[in-house]
Amino acid sequence: MINSKQESFDFKEYTTELMEKVEIELAAKDLEFYTNKDRMRKCTLVLKDKQYFVQFTFIMTHGTSQLKADISREVESKDDKELHDLKIKIKDLIIDEWEQCVWLEDRQSEELAEDLYKDVHSVENSLRRLINTILFYNLGGDWWEKYMPTHLTKKYNQRNDPYRDRAPSFKNIHTNLLSIDTGDLVTIISFKTYRVKGTNIFSKDDSFIFGFAEPENNIERRKDLHRFQYIMNNLMNDEKSIEGLQKGLTKILQEQMEVDKDFWEDYFAPWFSCNLREFQGKWENFSTDRNHVAHNKLIDNKLYQKFKKSMGDLLTLITEAEDKFSEHLEQEMNNFLEELEEMEESEYRQREADLRELMAEESGVEIRDEDDIIELLQEHINTAFEEIKQDIYYRSELEITYSEPLLKDNDENVFMIVHNAINNSITVDVEPFINAEAAGTSNVKFLVYYNGEYQESFEISYTNGEAEFNEEQGCFMPSILDELDVSALEELETLVHNLLEEKMPEIGEDMASFPCEECQGFAVNISKENEYTVGHCFICGHTNQVGECMKCEEPLDGTEDGFCESCQEFIDKQ
After folding, report:
1. pLDDT tens-digit profile of 286-321?
2. Measuring CA to CA, how many Å separate 158 from each of 169, 186, 191, 232, 430?
């Protein structure tokens, strides 16, 4: 602790009063200061029959005061709940009385991180193993070199060669995915390959011969071919024109392509009990937790339990997929090399891209296509939900899931908050309408539900720009400027925070082991430390009868009055 806010500071009196408060609030006993010096004091106290040592050191240097607290036990353990409660209680009691709190070392947190890192390795390596196994059997041993994009293979090669040089025994093996970043593993399972359509603008077709009636699709192909030739003529005569023509050229070429292999749908979906977006959401949360552990950030018991559960759930999901795939191999060994049915997608619409670009260039009006509108709206939507996640990330009793809406069709549960203790939930559905026409208005409607009951809806919108050709000026002139209105996202955030405060309160660990007499749920408050009355049921709000210690008047984990454990021990010794 740095720089006391108190006008006068008495080291002995301050530390004595502090530890007496700790003794009372943690129901400790046998508090004793056994070393008393001007700048250093040591004491012991007993919590749950375990002795703990606390050393205070007071330092004054260059006008700065420091109070250092060292908390320990002869035999330390990451599972020592009392040690965790003791250090947090001391911190909470004095943090407001000092300008700054600096956490120098926490060996218990380090042990928790070491234990979690084993889970991190298990989850990562399980997915690596599953990816290798499935793609090897479906695509062959060279699937990595044959299908993966250059940005992944280049990253792998740059890392893998030095790693193998450091371990001579493994120089002659292919480590494959061991050098790939955690986030890239999801890129692989969601990867798609593309091929040129059988019928494209370069195809030879007798119906292209002039003088014959042409089907409508051939007329469109002829237009696309002319657009392609126009762009290429510009590039052949002026290489610098690529900057202005790149988007139109890319658009034409993309329209000639179709999905060839969808890795998730073709190779992974049959074995997973969730869809791709759910898995991506879980993996994104895992990656965030992994970075917290890997970067040596502090971990308390609540966060440890949250990480342990989420990593365990994800490992179970991957292990189940691995088991299903293994069973399939046993049953279908002779037929396994047959490819899964390929799903074709038509992802691109015919647009007048060149005209849009010309209108935007001459008029200065932004006329976005469908993809650009979706990207713009997604950016603001992602920011809003990310802010909510960050605001409540510390609450370990909440499970938060967000899947970026594609804004193609109605999407349920794009955002979900589940209270693990009382099983309440807040969900947000999305209903998009995208209109990429000039002067067209696109909107996205958000419907908020609490426990499945509709609460309120919010809507954001984007109006596309429009330009008209001016005969006198000989160019396009603006008629409507584009406009974006996302103010409703702030109202959405406010509603979610209000629902959290009113319906999904922050709950500590002190809940009764007996059920509520009204709803039979195990969520009865027996703590005086929160804002709720003793006996309050967090599920239905009913106030239950809770016993009280007849000596210290603290709540008991039962409905009848009696003595708490500490008081009973005191009485037994008399």
Report:
1. 888 787 776 667 777 777 778 888 888 898 999 999
2. 19, 20, 21, 36, 42
